[in-house]
Specification:
alpha+beta, three-stranded mixed sheet, 16 strands, 17% helix
Protein backbone atom coordinates (compact mmCIF):
# COMPACT_ATOMS: atom_id res chain seq x y z
CA UNK A 1 0.00 0.00 0.00
CA UNK A 2 1.31 3.44 -0.95
CA UNK A 3 -0.70 5.31 1.69
CA UNK A 4 0.95 5.84 5.08
CA UNK A 5 1.16 7.97 8.20
CA UNK A 6 4.03 10.31 8.95
CA UNK A 7 4.89 11.33 12.51
CA UNK A 8 7.43 13.99 13.33
CA UNK A 9 8.00 17.63 14.17
CA UNK A 10 7.14 20.98 12.62
CA UNK A 11 9.41 23.92 13.42
CA UNK A 12 8.88 27.62 12.64
CA UNK A 13 11.68 30.17 12.95
CA UNK A 14 11.15 33.90 12.37
CA UNK A 15 14.28 36.01 12.14
CA UNK A 16 12.92 39.47 11.31
CA UNK A 17 12.01 41.89 12.74
CA UNK A 18 11.89 39.83 15.98
CA UNK A 19 13.10 36.32 16.68
CA UNK A 20 10.30 33.86 17.32
CA UNK A 21 10.98 30.10 17.24
CA UNK A 22 8.68 27.25 18.17
CA UNK A 23 8.08 23.60 17.31
CA UNK A 24 5.40 21.00 17.90
CA UNK A 25 4.86 17.28 17.24
CA UNK A 26 2.57 16.31 14.38
CA UNK A 27 1.19 13.44 12.37
CA UNK A 28 0.00 13.69 8.79
CA UNK A 29 -1.52 11.22 6.36
CA UNK A 30 -0.08 10.40 2.96
CA UNK A 31 -3.05 9.22 0.90
CA UNK A 32 -2.89 7.64 -2.53
CA UNK A 33 -6.10 8.75 -4.22
CA UNK A 34 -6.55 5.37 -5.92
CA UNK A 35 -6.52 3.69 -2.50
CA UNK A 36 -9.22 5.84 -0.90
CA UNK A 37 -12.06 3.33 -1.52
CA UNK A 38 -9.97 0.55 0.04
CA UNK A 39 -8.98 2.70 3.04
CA UNK A 40 -12.60 3.72 3.53
CA UNK A 41 -13.61 0.09 3.83
CA UNK A 42 -10.59 -1.22 5.74
CA UNK A 43 -9.85 1.39 8.44
CA UNK A 44 -12.34 1.54 11.29
CA UNK A 45 -11.53 5.14 12.24
CA UNK A 46 -11.33 6.57 8.72
CA UNK A 47 -13.92 7.72 6.22
CA UNK A 48 -13.71 9.07 2.69
CA UNK A 49 -16.29 11.80 2.04
CA UNK A 50 -18.29 10.63 5.03
CA UNK A 51 -18.40 11.17 8.77
CA UNK A 52 -15.87 9.24 10.83
CA UNK A 53 -13.42 9.84 13.67
CA UNK A 54 -10.92 10.85 10.97
CA UNK A 55 -11.87 11.58 7.40
CA UNK A 56 -10.70 12.92 4.08
CA UNK A 57 -13.18 15.02 2.10
CA UNK A 58 -12.50 15.93 -1.51
CA UNK A 59 -14.28 19.24 -0.90
CA UNK A 60 -11.65 20.27 1.68
CA UNK A 61 -9.06 20.53 -1.09
CA UNK A 62 -8.40 21.84 -4.55
CA UNK A 63 -9.73 19.96 -7.55
CA UNK A 64 -6.33 18.42 -8.18
CA UNK A 65 -7.18 16.78 -11.50
CA UNK A 66 -8.79 19.98 -12.78
CA UNK A 67 -5.72 21.95 -11.71
CA UNK A 68 -3.42 19.53 -13.54
CA UNK A 69 -5.51 19.85 -16.70
CA UNK A 70 -5.42 23.67 -16.46
CA UNK A 71 -1.65 23.54 -15.95
CA UNK A 72 -1.06 21.24 -18.93
CA UNK A 73 0.18 18.35 -16.79
CA UNK A 74 -0.67 14.94 -18.25
CA UNK A 75 -0.08 11.94 -15.98
CA UNK A 76 -1.28 9.44 -18.54
CA UNK A 77 -3.69 6.57 -17.95
CA UNK A 78 -1.44 4.92 -15.35
CA UNK A 79 -0.54 8.05 -13.40
CA UNK A 80 -1.01 8.37 -9.65
CA UNK A 81 -1.53 11.14 -7.11
CA UNK A 82 -0.60 11.17 -3.43
CA UNK A 83 -1.43 13.92 -0.95
CA UNK A 84 0.28 14.65 2.38
CA UNK A 85 -2.29 16.37 4.57
CA UNK A 86 -4.04 16.68 7.90
CA UNK A 87 -7.15 14.55 8.22
CA UNK A 88 -10.41 15.80 9.59
CA UNK A 89 -10.72 14.84 13.26
CA UNK A 90 -14.27 14.66 14.60
CA UNK A 91 -15.36 16.66 11.57
CA UNK A 92 -12.85 19.54 11.86
CA UNK A 93 -9.77 20.24 9.78
CA UNK A 94 -7.32 23.04 9.09
CA UNK A 95 -4.41 22.52 6.71
CA UNK A 96 -1.79 25.26 6.54
CA UNK A 97 -0.26 23.35 3.63
CA UNK A 98 -0.89 20.06 1.84
CA UNK A 99 1.54 18.59 -0.68
CA UNK A 100 0.45 16.62 -3.76
CA UNK A 101 2.93 14.37 -5.57
CA UNK A 102 1.64 13.82 -9.12
CA UNK A 103 3.36 10.96 -10.94
CA UNK A 104 3.37 9.47 -14.39
CA UNK A 105 2.89 5.74 -14.89
CA UNK A 106 6.65 5.10 -14.71
CA UNK A 107 6.78 6.69 -11.24
CA UNK A 108 8.50 9.90 -12.31
CA UNK A 109 7.21 13.13 -10.77
CA UNK A 110 5.31 15.28 -13.26
CA UNK A 111 4.80 18.01 -10.66
CA UNK A 112 4.36 18.69 -6.98
CA UNK A 113 1.52 20.94 -5.85
CA UNK A 114 1.76 22.92 -2.61
CA UNK A 115 -1.78 23.77 -1.54
CA UNK A 116 -1.59 26.65 0.97
CA UNK A 117 -4.52 27.76 3.14
CA UNK A 118 -4.78 30.80 5.37
CA UNK A 119 -7.02 31.35 8.38
CA UNK A 120 -9.36 33.54 6.30
CA UNK A 121 -10.68 30.58 4.32
CA UNK A 122 -8.55 31.37 1.25
CA UNK A 123 -6.22 29.03 -0.58
CA UNK A 124 -3.71 29.01 -3.39
CA UNK A 125 -2.03 26.14 -5.20
CA UNK A 126 1.61 26.46 -6.24
CA UNK A 127 2.36 24.06 -9.11
CA UNK A 128 6.03 23.09 -8.89
CA UNK A 129 7.49 21.59 -12.06
CA UNK A 130 10.72 19.56 -11.81
CA UNK A 131 11.95 21.17 -15.03
CA UNK A 132 11.82 24.55 -13.27
CA UNK A 133 13.52 23.37 -10.09
CA UNK A 134 16.82 21.87 -9.03
CA UNK A 135 18.20 19.21 -6.70
CA UNK A 136 20.14 19.73 -3.48
CA UNK A 137 20.92 17.23 -0.75
CA UNK A 138 18.51 14.67 -2.17
CA UNK A 139 15.62 17.12 -2.17
CA UNK A 140 13.80 18.90 -4.98
CA UNK A 141 14.16 22.68 -4.73
CA UNK A 142 11.75 25.24 -6.18
CA UNK A 143 11.45 29.01 -6.02
CA UNK A 144 8.16 30.90 -6.30
CA UNK A 145 6.81 34.33 -5.57
CA UNK A 146 4.46 34.59 -2.59
CA UNK A 147 0.93 34.70 -4.01
CA UNK A 148 -1.27 34.29 -0.92
CA UNK A 149 -1.54 36.43 2.20
CA UNK A 150 -0.90 33.98 5.03
CA UNK A 151 0.11 35.97 8.10
CA UNK A 152 -0.81 39.56 9.08
CA UNK A 153 2.76 39.85 10.31
CA UNK A 154 4.31 39.23 6.90
CA UNK A 155 4.14 41.44 3.79
CA UNK A 156 3.22 40.19 0.33
CA UNK A 157 6.52 41.26 -1.23
CA UNK A 158 8.24 38.01 -0.40
CA UNK A 159 9.47 34.89 -2.19
CA UNK A 160 9.45 31.22 -1.23
CA UNK A 161 12.04 28.50 -1.63
CA UNK A 162 10.60 25.00 -1.23
CA UNK A 163 12.77 21.99 -0.36
CA UNK A 164 10.99 18.63 -0.62
CA UNK A 165 12.27 15.08 -0.28
CA UNK A 166 10.44 12.09 -1.69
CA UNK A 167 7.85 10.67 0.76
CA UNK A 168 9.85 7.56 1.57
CA UNK A 169 10.87 6.12 4.96
CA UNK A 170 11.89 9.60 6.07
CA UNK A 171 10.38 12.88 4.91
CA UNK A 172 12.02 16.30 4.95
CA UNK A 173 10.27 19.51 3.90
CA UNK A 174 11.49 23.07 4.29
CA UNK A 175 10.11 26.42 3.19
CA UNK A 176 12.24 29.57 3.27
CA UNK A 177 10.59 33.00 3.12
CA UNK A 178 12.77 35.80 1.80
CA UNK A 179 12.28 39.52 1.41
CA UNK A 180 14.71 41.47 -0.76
CA UNK A 181 17.03 38.45 -0.67
CA UNK A 182 17.14 38.27 3.13
CA UNK A 183 15.88 35.18 4.98
CA UNK A 184 13.05 36.34 7.25
CA UNK A 185 11.40 33.04 8.14
CA UNK A 186 11.67 29.32 7.58
CA UNK A 187 9.57 26.30 8.48
CA UNK A 188 10.52 22.64 8.47
CA UNK A 189 8.78 19.29 8.69
CA UNK A 190 10.83 16.22 9.56
CA UNK A 191 8.93 12.96 9.86
CA UNK A 192 9.21 9.19 9.58
CA UNK A 193 6.84 6.84 7.82
CA UNK A 194 4.67 4.25 9.55
CA UNK A 195 2.10 1.94 7.93
CA UNK A 196 -1.44 3.32 7.81
CA UNK A 197 -3.51 0.83 9.81
CA UNK A 198 -6.39 1.05 12.26
CA UNK A 199 -3.87 0.53 15.08
CA UNK A 200 -1.42 3.22 13.91
CA UNK A 201 -4.27 5.68 13.35
CA UNK A 202 -5.63 4.97 16.84
CA UNK A 203 -2.16 5.51 18.30
CA UNK A 204 -1.75 8.83 16.45
CA UNK A 205 -5.14 10.06 17.66
CA UNK A 206 -4.17 9.29 21.26
CA UNK A 207 -0.66 10.71 21.04
CA UNK A 208 -1.65 13.83 19.05
CA UNK A 209 -5.26 14.52 20.10
CA UNK A 210 -7.37 16.97 18.09
CA UNK A 211 -4.43 17.76 15.81
CA UNK A 212 -6.17 20.21 13.40
CA UNK A 213 -7.63 22.26 16.27
CA UNK A 214 -4.24 22.30 18.01
CA UNK A 215 -2.57 23.59 14.84
CA UNK A 216 -5.02 26.48 14.55
CA UNK A 217 -4.74 27.28 18.27
CA UNK A 218 -0.94 27.40 17.98
CA UNK A 219 -1.18 29.75 14.99
CA UNK A 220 -3.35 32.17 16.98
CA UNK A 221 -1.15 31.91 20.08
CA UNK A 222 1.96 32.75 18.05
CA UNK A 223 0.08 35.69 16.52
CA UNK A 224 -0.58 37.00 20.03
CA UNK A 225 3.11 36.68 20.86
CA UNK A 226 4.09 38.61 17.72
CA UNK A 227 1.52 41.30 18.49
CA UNK A 228 2.91 41.69 22.02
CA UNK A 229 6.37 42.13 20.48
CA UNK A 230 4.91 44.94 18.34
CA UNK A 231 5.73 43.19 15.10
CA UNK A 232 4.51 45.28 12.12
CA UNK A 233 0.95 44.41 11.05
CA UNK A 234 -0.12 44.07 7.39
CA UNK A 235 -3.76 44.22 6.37
CA UNK A 236 -5.12 41.38 4.27
CA UNK A 237 -5.34 42.33 0.59
CA UNK A 238 -8.26 41.20 -1.61
CA UNK A 239 -8.19 37.61 -2.79
CA UNK A 240 -8.97 36.38 -6.30
CA UNK A 241 -9.54 32.59 -6.52
CA UNK A 242 -6.97 30.98 -8.78
CA UNK A 243 -4.75 34.06 -8.73
CA UNK A 244 -4.07 34.60 -5.03
CA UNK A 245 -3.89 37.78 -3.00
CA UNK A 246 -3.91 41.02 -5.00
CA UNK A 247 -0.97 43.18 -4.08
CA UNK A 248 -1.70 46.78 -3.30
Amino acid sequence: MKSALYTGTVMHARRSPHDNVFSYPVYMALLDLDELPTLDGRLRLFGWNRRAVTSFYDADHIDIRGLLAESGVDLGADGSIQVLTNLRVLGYVFNPVSFWWCRRGDGSVACIVAEVNNTFGERHAYVLHPSEGSKAGGRAVFETDKLLHVSPFMPMDQAYTWWLSEPEQHLSVRMDVREAGSLDFHATLTARRVPLTSASLRFALCRYPLMPARVLALIHWQAVRLWLKRTPFYRKPPHVPGQGSVRG
